[in-house]
Amino acid sequence: MAIDTFIFVLISGIVLGGLYALMAVGLSVVWTTLDVFNFAHGAFVALGAYVAWQISQSAPGPAGFALAAALSVAFMFAFGFCLHFGIIKPFERSPNIVLLAVITTLAASSIIENGIQLVWGPREKQIDPNIDMRVDFGGVAIAGIDLLSLAVALLALAGLAVFLRRSATGRAMRAAAQNREAAELMGFNVAFLFAIAFGIAAATAALAGVFIGSLRFINPSFGADPLMKSLIVVIFGGVAQFTSPIYAAFIIGIVEAFSIYFLGLYWAPAVLFALMIAVLMIKPEGLFGNRQKTL
Amino acid sequence: MTGELLQLSSLSGGYPPVSVFRNVDLTIGKGEAVGLFGPNGHGKTTLLKTVAGLIDPWDGEIRFDGRRLNAEGVMAARISKHLNYDLFRRRRIQARDVVRAGLIYVMQGNLLFPEMTVDEVLHIAPSASRGRSGVSEMQSLVRDLFPRLRERRHSKIRYLSGGERQMVSIAVGLLALPRLLILDEPTLGLSPKLRLELSEAIARIRDAQVPLLVVDQNVEFLTSLVDRLYLFDHGSITSEIDKAHMPSHDEIMTMLFGSAP
Ligand SMILES: Nc1ncnc2c1ncn2[C@@H]1O[C@H](COP(=O)(O)OP(=O)(O)OP(=O)(O)O)[C@@H](O)[C@H]1O
Ligand SMILES: [Mg+2]
Q1: Torsions phi, psi of B144, nearest 5?
Q2: Residue pair B186/B48 in contact by the 8 Å Cβ criterion
Q3: Which helix (DSSP H) or strand (DSSP E) does residue A235 occupy?
Q4: A49, A155, A280, B20 - which has most CB atoms within 10 Å?
């Protein structure tokens, strides 16, 4: 393997890792706060991408792309916030909420997918970010949009970490995640905080969707693959800390890039699943996990 | 004294379908410190959790400063194997309203937020009292009462000892500027030294004019602390004792169990 090929594969793995981190963090924020697994996460990615595509149709140029991304993220935050009250909140005091949430989030996912199909049709689309710049890395030219997606993903993750660790609302959210009763006794509106968590998950999914939609073609059901990848990342890394799925995402991204290079597109998922099963056997709480599950 | 601070009238509740306490009448006047004493497992915590709004009362009334905190009427006991009525049932009391009214409950054996640091927890604690006057005075009282928390401010709650965790819980309650502070077994499971330290802190909280309702298994501590004592047995209040007639440990045992052990 020539050194420039190596650098190219490595960088594309890291770029992939940034997107996976963005998606997996959304999944793990919901899992750690609401205690439910959100099967609609992939549909959030897809809807976010389509909303951005729609806006970018009437807003040209790189500024239009930025506007489309921002509006899509804001829209998806509101969407997730409201959706929580429809599909999670009614069951919060039910003893079998985990199972009920599997069903309601799967239902939401299917409704969103079909809604996308209804509105935008089944034909594949691609968001044009209008960024033709290329950056040279030791003789390897990397597309500007790749680097932009990595930078934005890292910034968004850092922003989210600061929000959770430093802001009063973020701290209240972590408190509600760790001990719901104690948070209620401090006067917090736990349902509102949970809705914010769901909104944040949808917003990060949308941001990932915007970049996926500008790197490859999208169709109404393309969210299934991101959902699968985030699932692998979350299981692989564990959710002991905000950062554990992030590390895992970069490892998975790099492993995937190299497997695609060496084994081809069809075998790459098998490698990831084998890796995930190995981790499940050796360290079931995830590579960076402990038995705690916190935000 | 015009009007009572807390007034429970024939309050009943429990964990459906199990009834835990029945027809509880209890009043706390403004500026009073009141004790609640009773055997383990007879429903004191359940009663207090109900008052705090964590579980729904079945029947009766919770009034705080003249305002009714729970919904009117009797909770319909609809339990079905086939239908999930919980989906449609509205809460009959909201912890948020209770806290906002100034009734602060410090839970028994509160684990708080295991992965947050002491500082983070104390930072979000005054959320219920934000904007009210007296926050900074309370902050300095808390600093005075629990100097140990300052030393441990960067530790996660998970790594605190039981006594330190109890201190954080009480501090969190105080920072909400309680108009009535309910402490549920604050000295449970502590070493004698820490027990003494916490008892002294609680006496100082009383001296700072914070109305108190304290549950504790230590009769001597309780009788020295409070103005009035309620005895609680099998889910009901069985007697009410004034400061002037505060009985000894043995007398209380006789009242509760018939004969001194
Ligand atoms: N979450 C729950 N679900 C069902 N029953 C419960 C629950 N919590 C407590 N109980 C039962 O309610 C009864 C009263 O318990 P509670 O904790 O209120 O008593 P307590 O007087 O506070 O006891 P202690 O002095 O040990 O704290 C007990 O029989 C207990 O088993
Ligand atoms: Mg108790």
Answers
A1: -65, -45
A2: no
A3: helix A224-237
A4: A49
What domains are defined for chain B?
4-257 (3.40.50.300)
* Ordered DSSP codes for B231-250: EEETTEEEEEEEGGGPPPHH
**SS3 at position A135:** strand
Nearest-CB residue to A187 (from B107, B114, B176): B176
Q: Which amino acid is at A143?
A: A
Q: In B59-217, which ranges are continuous DSSP H helix? A: 95-101, 118-124, 135-145, 147-151, 162-175, 192-207
Q: Is the pLDDT of residue A289 over 90?
A: no
The model's pTM is 0.92
Total count of domains within chain A: 1
Across residues B150-163, what is the average pLDDT? 94
Helix (H) or strand (E) holding A39, with range, is none
Amino acid, single-letter form, for residue B196: L
User: What's the complex ipTM?
Assistant: 0.91
* β-bridge partners, B184: B215
In this prediction, residue A92 has a pLDDT band, given cuts at 50, 70 and 90, of confident
d(CA B148, CA A129): 56
The alpha carbon of B138 is separated from its chain's Cα centroid by a whole number of angstroms, namely 19
Beta strand pairing status for B33-37 and B59-64?
A: unpaired
Q: Is A203 domain-assigned?
A: yes
Contact A14/A253 with Cβ under 8 angstroms? Answer: yes
A86 close contact with B: CB closer than 8 A: no
Q: How far is CA A119 from the centre of its chain?
A: 23
* Residue A82 is assigned to a structural domain of this protein: yes
Closest residue by Cα to atom 30, ligand 1, is B41
pLDDT of residue B80: 65
User: Does the pLDDT value for residue B76 go beyond 80?
Assistant: no
Is B20 touching ligand 1 by the criterion CB < 6 Å?
yes
Residue B31, both tokens: 């500026």
Category of B28 on φ-ψ map: left (φ > 0), alpha (ψ -120 to 50) or beta: beta
Question: CA dist B2 to A16, A178, B28, B65, Å?
Answer: 68, 41, 12, 10
- CB of B175 closer than 8 Å to CB of B122: yes
Residue with tokens 């410190």: B33
Size of interface A-B (CB pairs under 8 A): 75
Q: Which domain holds residue A50?
A: 3-230
In contact, A108 and A40? CB cutoff 8 Å? yes
